[in-house]
Amino acid sequence: MSVFLQELRVALRSLRKSPGFACAAIGTLGLGVAATAAIFSILHAVVLAPLPYRAPDRLAAVWEVMEDGRLWRPSPATFRAWREHARAFESLAAFGGATWTLAADGAEPVSLHGARVTPDYFAVLGVAPALGRAFLPEDAGPGAAPVVALGHALWVSRFGADPSILGRTLSLGEGTFTVVGVMPPAPYPASALTVGKIAFAKGEPQFFVPAALEGTGAPGGRSYVLGVIGRLRAGVSWNAAQQELTSLAGRLHEEDSSSRAVDARLAPLARETSGAMRPALWLLFGAVVFLLAIGCANVTSLQLARAAARAREIDVRAALGASRSRIAAQILLESGLLAAAACAGGVLAAVWGLPVLVALMPSDVPRLSDVRLHGGILAFAAAVSAAAGMASGVLPALRASRAGASRRLSDLGRGATAAPSGRRALRWLVLVETAIAVLLASGAILLTRSFLALARVDPGFHSLETTVAHFGLPRARYGTPKEVAGFHERLLARVRTLPEVEAAALAYNHPLEAHWIGGGQVVGAERTSGREPAPAWFRSVSEDYFRSVGVPIVGGRDFTASDDLAHPAVAIVNQAFVRENFPDGRALGRHLESSDPASWWGQAEGMPARFEIVGVSADVRFLGLDKAPAPAYYLPIRQFPIEDMNLLVRGPNAAALAPALRRIVGELDPAIPLQGVATLSRLRDAALAPSRLHMRLMLVFGGVAVGLAMLGVYGLLSYVVALRRRELSIRIALGARTPQVLSTVLGETARLAAGGALLGVAGALAMSPLLSGVLFGVAPTDPGSLGAAAGALFLVTLVASGLPARRAVRIAPTESLKGE
Prior knowledge:
Elements: H1 2-17, H2 19-48, E1 59-66, E2 71-72, H3 76-85, E3 89-103, E4 110-117, H4 121-125, E5 131-132, E6 147-150, H5 152-159, E7 169-172, E8 175-182, E9 189-193, E10 197-200, E11 207-210, E12 227-232, H6 238-255, E13 261-268, H7 269-274, H8 277-309, H9 311-319, H10 324-360, H11 375-402, H12 405-411, H13 420-455, E14 467-472, H14 481-495, E15 503-507, E16 521-522, E17 537-541, H15 545-549, E18 553-556, E19 570-574, H16 575-581, E20 591-593, E21 610-617, E22 632-636, E23 644-650, H17 654-668, E24 675-679, H18 680-723, H19 725-733, H20 738-766, H21 768-772, H22 783-800, H23 802-809, H24 813-816
Parallel strand pairs: 4-11, 6-8, 17-22, 19-21
Antiparallel strand pairs: 1-2, 1-12, 1-13, 3-4, 3-7, 3-12, 5-8, 6-11, 7-8, 9-10, 14-23, 14-24, 15-23, 16-20, 18-21, 19-22, 20-21
Helix pairs in contact: 1-10, 2-8, 2-10, 2-11, 3-6, 8-11, 8-13, 8-18, 9-12, 10-11, 13-18, 13-20, 13-22, 14-17, 18-22, 18-23, 20-22, 20-23
């Protein structure tokens, strides 16, 4: 122990004598540790941490597969068949999103986002209520009293975590509900998108209500509205469950020709939880690991240069009897101290930077509330720091301890030329550092080009300053289509009287969202392609909708105020629908039949089921700016009124409209809150947020990598010049000119830089599959991007070598050759 303490004091004294070196090394490693810890914290919470359910590895999301291979939400008929015949599952549950208004205790009404779930939903997840009970089968039966389970966050924020909440009645959405339970906080599946992805509510759903899928209140057979989760039986493999579902899907398709599904697909629920962020987070984590590797290479080069400057000290210690292992241990101990300081600084930086990073993440990323620097993350940071310290200290320790004391002392004052093994190690450091920098720089360039391409995409609508606001009508007071349509008519009439309003409309979905696959099918269509057309998205809108959002009508006419329940039912289809269903391009005058998706809301009675196509609209990318326009059909809200709607108002001053709109809605019905007021421009920016975040982070990592590469090459070349001081002095003494000396110093650097650039391009090509999932409009193997990264790093390396090369040509031969 006394020997260790002595060596520790020596190491501290040595670092104290070189504050510049110590600060540079600690800062470089600390930066890598901070970035790695912060990104790993998010990766762990969102992707790696197990879901807070019983046996989460047995939970699956279940999808229907269409003829073209796309995943779609299951229909109620399919769900009932799975639940009855699939023996691979302990149980299956269905769910769907719901947005209702809560008015309680005289407080201002608020709009809540919740979920309709089958009674076995919580049993499938393996979640026990925090208070009260979960749903019972009879809660979804005919004539059952309405009950609700509250989300934990709503219970705390709205009701002060009152334990006496059980048994209280709430005016919620469709009527009066009795509170029977409070659920613990967890990332609950809240709704399912018809692109094979489950949406998890931000934080958690604020309420749960039982959904009836049997009897007269059940949704239509082929409305694709459900998300489905299941728990595999113990001992049943995923392959066996998949085979059973595939076999069952084949039988169902044969029995029911109206079904568009030909297969079924299982996916682990944990994978659905992280969703589209999974590949992006792994990509960012790989980037920070590479950044840390560059930092280790930099510190290695700094230590090598410092070891050259400490040659006399190390040689004297060797001459006085210090063994090679003792000298190596001294260097490694210094590296360990640097790593410990870097760990402390990196953790502090991560504590400061992690909340900022989380705030920049898209709001719909699940489990962001679980991101924190807990003990496991701190242990990870300590392990990363220890590994970085060891990695950056091994080569300098071996170099410092390799030669014998007699040779070292004989070479004092003359300068020694690097041994071939040492030169090879230096070459590899330059190669690796340049290659990693090229890899990160190419990723930054590709993501930047991808974001710019996405930002240039035409969304299909052109009124970006149109204001959007959401509201929901409580069914207790608006229980019939006529009552719903009456409120819509009064609201639009009042809003259109505002002097700053150019156009106003209502729509179930605004142009950047889609929730509902409808059952619209062409009457008497002939399938020339040999397959069923892709399901079309249902969109209910009012007259003036297309003008309000700037979507042109390219054929036929727009909806009018006379398109109501007293007149023939009409529809407008988009160009994608025409391409999918009408090979001859003639859609006007044809008819659609609906499978009545409104039955999910219990309003099937009185709704039309056959619609004449009277117009064709331009395509809108409502599935996402990075997705191709999908088939869609629009129905007029006067013929298809729905309680949950978006109010869209076009005017020159969108920000000033919000108070007036809230005032008008409050005057029409004080119990209806207007929620989520935003412009289409802001919603478009939100759609670009994930790509923008990836681009910015990779630009930061790529920029830091280039800077560290410059620093590393500078340090390495400085060390090389120090080792070759005697050789260069002899060349100058013998008459070598400045260009010849520069060629000697820069030639090897240029060759190494070119080799590192090529190695980086090869690495980028090998890792292209990881990038393909997050790029848009540019290939991960794009030669222009890879060439730009390689060329930039080659030039940066040459620039970084300029100062050491300049120092080399200024060597005074008389000073360097004094000892000769």
